[in-house]
Amino acid sequence: MSSEKTLVIFVAIFIVMTVLFLYSSNNGIGGTYAPFHVASNHALLTTNLKKWAGKDGYVPVYGNKSMALHCQNCALVTSSSHVLGSRAGEEIDRTECVIRMNDAPTLGYETDVGNRTSLRVVAHSSVFRVVRRPTEFFHRTDTNPVIIFWGPPNKIGKDAKGTLYRLIQRVSMTYSNVSCFSIAPSKMRKFDSLFHRETGRDRQKSHSWLSTGWFTMVIAIEICDNIKVYGMVPPNHCVKKPVSKKTPYHYYKPRGADECVTYLQNESGRRGNHHRFITEKQVFARWAKQYNVTFTHPKW
Ligand SMILES: *[C@@H]1O[C@H](CO)[C@@H](O)[C@H](O)[C@H]1NC(C)=O
Ligand SMILES: *[C@@H]1O[C@H](CO)[C@@H](O)[C@H](O)[C@H]1NC(C)=O
Ligand SMILES: *[C@@H]1O[C@H](CO)[C@@H](O)[C@H](O)[C@H]1NC(C)=O
Ligand SMILES: *[C@@H]1O[C@H](CO)[C@@H](O)[C@H](O)[C@H]1NC(C)=O
Ligand SMILES: *[C@@H]1O[C@H](CO)[C@@H](O)[C@H](O)[C@H]1NC(C)=O
After folding, report:
1. Which of 34, 91, 123, 240 has the maximal Cβ count within 10 Å?
2. Which ligand neighbours the alpha carbon of 91 most closely?
3. What is the band of 18 on the pLDDT scale with cuts at 50, 70, 90?
4. Comparing 76-80, 272-276, 296-300, which segment has the lowest mean pLDDT?
5. How far apart are CA 160 and CA 43, in angstroms?
6. List the disulfide bonds (predicted).
7. What is the CA radius of gyration of the chain?
8. Residue of the CA atom closest to atom 4 of ligand 3
């Protein structure tokens, strides 16, 4: 083999290796932060979330109820440990409607998160944790609270005859004060297309899972004129500064996963499905200007 040919082969190998290296590091294999959504200014179609819904999107799990909740002022209490030490409990409880997520407790955390619940948005994956502790989630609430369950139609839809649906049905019968709804399949698809329109990414093709935070924010905008969000960080929070102090992802799991680690790993995850917590917050920041949404603890 001539030395020229050898050189060509070496150069080719070098280029291939370089490309592979760059590809894999961009892919988050090395734990590098790769933003899922490159912030862009291209005009995205805006959806009027106030009219977006249609009440038929929420199917009563038991009985003949309709989702009629409407509030002038809402406190949306996140599950982030940023609420710890806020002493916002009394202010939250003074708000007309208090919105919580999944199995976030109030018992033992009243000073920071308050003790009322008007609406709870629960993921299919949290159903067991919620129905297991009815005194916490079905008694310690407002007199006529609402619970909205979201999930794939084959798990929580009206036609799903699985364990999960039967569980939800049983608790709705037992606690008839609580109005339980599941999100209709047609509305679940709307949540997907909303994500597509707002981020320019197809949820399934981009291997993304919507978070309970996404559902809760959209529902809150739908039913509340003004929203104050407790404990949500701005989209650039974990990127901007190297995070030194550990901030648990959930206020009720002090030894659980770190919030920024969870956000960054999910955001850059490519294999398997991941939550796009940071991308979602970029969208929330846009919505905040359009609808009256304010953020406190931290304030932004
Ligand atoms: C269910 O509610 C609607 C309106 O609230 C009412 O028109 C209808 O008669 C009710 N059906 C039953 C079976 O109670
Ligand atoms: C919680 O509930 C009790 C009884 O309804 C009330 O007195 C108290 O002020 C509430 N708020 C907090 C922050 O504990
Ligand atoms: C259910 O509703 C009734 C009447 O609105 C109320 O008196 C009762 O305390 C409620 N029960 C619970 C567990 O909230
Ligand atoms: C926006 O919401 C905040 C609290 O949620 C409220 O204090 C303020 O008056 C609202 N502004 C408008 C213009 O409605
Ligand atoms: C993504 O977020 C979920 C919480 O919703 C968490 O359980 C999971 O560990 C995160 N994944 C990574 C790779 O950090």
Report:
1. 123
2. 2
3. low
4. 272-276
5. 39
6. 74-224
7. 22
8. 143
Smallest-distance ligand from the CA of 112: 2
- Residue 180's beta-bridge partner residues? 147
Residues 6+ apart with CB under 8 A from 13: none
Q: Which residues, judged by CB distance below 6 Å to any ligand atom, belong to the binding site of ligand 5?
A: 262, 265-266, 269, 275
The answer to whether the beta carbons of residues 276 and 198 sit under 8 Å apart is no
Q: Which of 283, 284, 275 is nearest to 257 (CA)?
A: 275
CATH of domain 54-232: 3.90.1480.20
Please indicate whether residue 273 or residue 92 has the higher confidence score (pLDDT). Answer: 92
Give the mean model confidence (pLDDT) for residues 242-260. Answer: 87
Cα 227 to Cα 95: distance, rounded to the nearest angstrom: 10
Q: Which of 40-44, 150-154, 239-243 has the highest mean pLDDT?
A: 150-154
Residues with Cβ within 6 A of ligand 4?
A: 73, 226, 228, 292, 294
Task: Read off the pLDDT band of 269 (50, 70, 90).
Answer: confident
Average pLDDT, the chain: 85
Task: Identify the residues whose C-beta falls under 6 Å from ligand 3.
Answer: 139, 143, 177
pLDDT at residue 158 in the model: 73
Ligand nearest to the CA of 125: 5
| pLDDT of 33 above 50 | no
